Amino acid sequence: QVQLVESGGGLAQPGGSLRLSCAASGFTFSSYGMSWARQAPGKGLEWVSSMDNDVSVTYYADSVKGRFTISRDNAKNTVYLQMNSLEPENTALYYCGRGSLNIMDWGQGTQVTVSS
After folding, report:
1. From residue 2, how far is each of 7, 14, 114 by CA, in Å?
2. Who contacts 54 (Cβ-Cβ below 8 Å, separation ≥6)?
3. Is residue 114 within 8 Å of residue 90, measured between CB atoms?
4. What pLDDT is recorded for position 55?
5. H/E element holding 74?
6. According to DSSP H, which parts of 31-84 are helical?
7. Cα–Cα distance between 100 and 116 in angstroms, integer?
């Protein structure tokens, strides 16, 4: 079955960086777009970024454009989210999803806390 396991979350200071990873299994990874979304405390799920299976095509929410970078390694069945210039407002549970325009499955999430 499809499994998506996020890692790399933690505590970062404002202005700092984190790199999230999502290890995928149970499907042909290279055939699917992948996405990241987040849920801040008391808020709904917010889409962050997507990448088509064609690695040259990426999409970002305006709130993270220029600071976050999505990438993938098809040999490792892993998608990444490099997060730079972190802000307290980026504190959330971050999820990876299978798909780009239509998300079919979600992982369990990894917590990111940005605080001094």
Report:
1. 17, 34, 30
2. none
3. yes
4. 67
5. none
6. none
7. 33
| 67 within 8 A of 14, measured Cβ to Cβ | no
Both tokens assigned to 67: 């600071």
Residue pair 113/49 in contact by the 8 Å Cβ criterion? no
Tell me the per-residue pLDDT of 20-73, one tens digit each, with 9 for 90 and over.
Answer: 999 999 999 999 999 999 999 999 999 999 999 876 799 999 999 999 999 999
Measured in degrees and rounded to the nearest 5, phi and psi for residue 52 equal: -70, 165
Lowest mean pLDDT among 6-10, 94-98, 102-106: 102-106
| Residue matched to tokens 């960086």 | 17
Joined tokens for residue 9 = 């979350």
